[in-house]
Write a structure and sequence with these properties.
The complex is a heterotrimer of chains A (248), B (293) and C (319).
Chain A: E1 11-20, E2 23-33, E3 38-42, H1 49-57, E4 64-69, E5 72-73, H2 79-85, E6 87-89, H3 102-112, H4 122-135, H5 151-164, E7 169-173, H6 181-195, E8 200-204, H7 208-214, E9 217-222, E10 225-230, H8 232-237, H9 239-245
Parallel strand pairs in A: 3-8, 3-9, 6-7, 7-8
Antiparallel strand pairs in A: 1-2, 1-4, 4-5, 9-10
Chain B: H1 4-34, H2 42-60, H3 64-91, H4 97-120, E1 135-138, E2 141-144, H5 145-167, H6 169-179, H7 181-186, H8 191-204, H9 206-216, H10 224-238, H11 243-264, H12 269-283
Antiparallel strand pairs in B: 1-2
Chain C: H1 3-25, H2 30-55, H3 62-80, H4 84-105, H5 111-130, E1 141-142, H6 155-179, H7 181-191, H8 193-198, H9 203-222, H10 225-229, E2 231-232, H11 234-237, H12 240-253, H13 259-278, H14 281-298, H15 302-318
Antiparallel strand pairs in C: 1-2
Classes of the chains: A alpha/beta (248), B mainly alpha (293), C mainly alpha (319).
Amino acid sequence: MMPPENQPPLLRISALTKRFGGFVALDNVSVEIRPGERFGLIGPNGSGKTTLINCISGAFRTEAGTVVFRDEDITQLPPHLRTRRGIARSFQIPRPFKSMTVAENLMVALDFAVVTDQHASAAQRRDTMMSILTRMGLASKANVPATRLSQVELRKMELARAMATHPKLLISDEAMAGLSSSEVDEVLDLLMSLADQDITIIMIEHIMQAVMRFSQRVMCLETGRIIAIGSPAEVMANQRVQEAYLGT
Amino acid sequence: MFSFDLLLDAVAIGVLLGCFYAAVSLGLSLSFGLLDVPHVAHPAFLVMASYGVYFLNENYGIDPLLAGLLITPLLFVFGLVAYRIYYETFEKRGSDAGVRGIAFFFGVAFIIEVLLILQFGVDQRSVTASYIGKAWRIGDMRIPFRLLVAFAVAAALTILLTLYLSRTFMGRAIRAVAQDQEALRLMGANPIRIKQWAFGIATAVLGIAGALLIIVAPVEPTLDRSYIGRTFCVVVMAGLGSMAGTLVAAIILGVAETIVLTLFGASWAPAVSFGMLLAVLAVRPQGLFGRRS
Amino acid sequence: MNRNGILFWIGATLFLAAALLMTQVIGNQYPFFAGYVILQFVVLAVAWSILGGYAGYVNFGTSAFFGVGVYTAVFLAKAFGAPLAVQIATAAAIGALMGFVLGLLTLRMQGIFFSIATIAATIVIETTVTNWRYVGGAAGIQLQRPMVTAPFDNYVQMLFFVQALLVVLAVAISRYIQNSWIGHGLKALRDDELAAECTGVPTLRLKLVACVISGALMCAAGAPAAMYLQYADPSSAFNLNYSVSVLAMSLIGGTAHWAGPIIGAILLGATQQLLTVTISSEVNVLVLGVMLVLFVVAAPQGIIGLIRKVRRHRSEGEA
């Protein structure tokens, strides 16, 4: 079921431009993400997908354009304040806190990102942490050092840590790269179940089947520009997408 | 007090001095610039090489430059071993090499300093050769021969290394390993071997550089401390790993130092290299001619 | 306050009482001369670890903070005849300011670039002081100790006790940071700064806090040194040995726990005192180099790491 179109957008990106030296990584990109939407982001390597995410999460400053989240202009906010307002992300190459256990990784999020239940007791926060880990299927790994996790467990832990920040918008950057097909299904189901809990999700993915199955809308970037946006079927049928992305 | 002639003098001497700085920094440009090894013991290795040259010159009367060439193979092997130890203890284990790597090389530098003090004493040492102490006069300008020797050798060294890195198979492999280790591994090359070789070269170059150091001025065991700033300044300013950039950056430093020396006196000179380094790091961390975006 | 906290403060009180008692009963001056230096290194190592250990930013500018502390005291003593407490407080304030600037540097530099920048800043500051005639320039300056106040009957004994107070202050702060949200946040940003930021950790603010506290404590530790030596000169006050010693002490002790730098500073500091007296100051530097290399190679987590390993082995053996 598509979210209603008349609702105000959760995230509005207007005329965003990002340059690295002379190289234009994002060129005047505008898009709106609706609340509760499952949004797929595709494009060939170097097309600007991760750059766009970095601009949304605040890792990069932008040259021009604005990012508006829940009717607030967050263009100038540092990443941690965006996280506190409800934008969470995972990383293309997992970035766990290496000296910590899985549980401690999540506690960082609960200690720093969650503003609303600041006064929750330590026990309450531990319960929250365990319930997130259980939902992610990582409960048995709570006290394992992050460095001892397998690839798929690392991916899940990244998502769990992102979830622990209580996000409204979750950005998943190639959370399935390098996983086996059964593991891909596992992570995809996880993301689906999160979407059912009113969390808007932007998913970057190279595995086409996964994006198409997951997304309600798909956007394709090429050399920093939007070349197609619409339903998965529409985007797949688009000739420029086929040329640019599928290389045919 | 200050005249155009004086400035011209300073610039000329500064350019020559800069070439000398390039010669002592080239090795670091390889080891730190290309290989990312936090080699703060580089200047200590350099001073150690100078003492090797001093030893041969003092005891056997060998010309310092020739002596520098003679110890080059030894230094090469020393470099191979040093990198192996560094690799086995830090890079192989992965995380956190940076912090402990710097500490490691500082420890090594201190050990070298003390061993030199125990062996040669704390006094300054110098070498003798026919070209030391003489000068070339152009009008009022007096250019010491030893700086001219340093200039010629440094220029030759820079050209040789640039050619080595761009024309030979091993040289290209070294540059490749700096950019993408994985790709190299896929091609069937062993990146660790290549890095070890590169570190060997970086240390071997110190034979000639050490000879220049002791030709230009007397050395003492703790001289390495003032060269930490100079060499790192040159390499960072050059943009990591660029040989031609190293020469240009070193000349900028040489000229800046001589001008400050002329205008404000010797007591301000140490601040020049470190001040410039700080400014470059703060404003343009990728260096003036950087390889990284 | 929990049980550990109570134990800690009992220990701290006992330590101060013992230090005070020493000044009253021991007549020989040597223990105070040697003890002062060791205590000074404890403060420096503990302060260094707040930034270098918890946050993972390796500051090679310890000697800059120490030297500025020394020269703050020199200037205040010469210009206004200011008392020791004012010297230390002013040094702490200036150190905090320097720390703030250092914290801003972390915005643009990480890893070895940060470390190199701190070395560079040290030399620039040293050169500036060398050219500052009022405080003696390169030749240094002689200082006259003021009259000592009761209950101490010797100035060095008083300095010893003051440094002991600074130790308690530094350790209490370091311990508080380790156990509080500040410490947790620093640990996260040490592991991965971007991931920490994206998990809600205000990394810049935490780094600034760590830098300011670390800088203030290091400068404060340096301030009494002027009166201790009754002399100051730039090349000793800003000597690179301070930076490397303090780094070595922290790494040898281990930075994962607040007690690590204390263990390292006492161990290395005492060894150095012993060697300087019995053999020579060169051997002293040699030992420093060898210990540093040995520990980073063989025991990367320091003595604290070794202790934890032994404990883990024992508990696994019992289980």
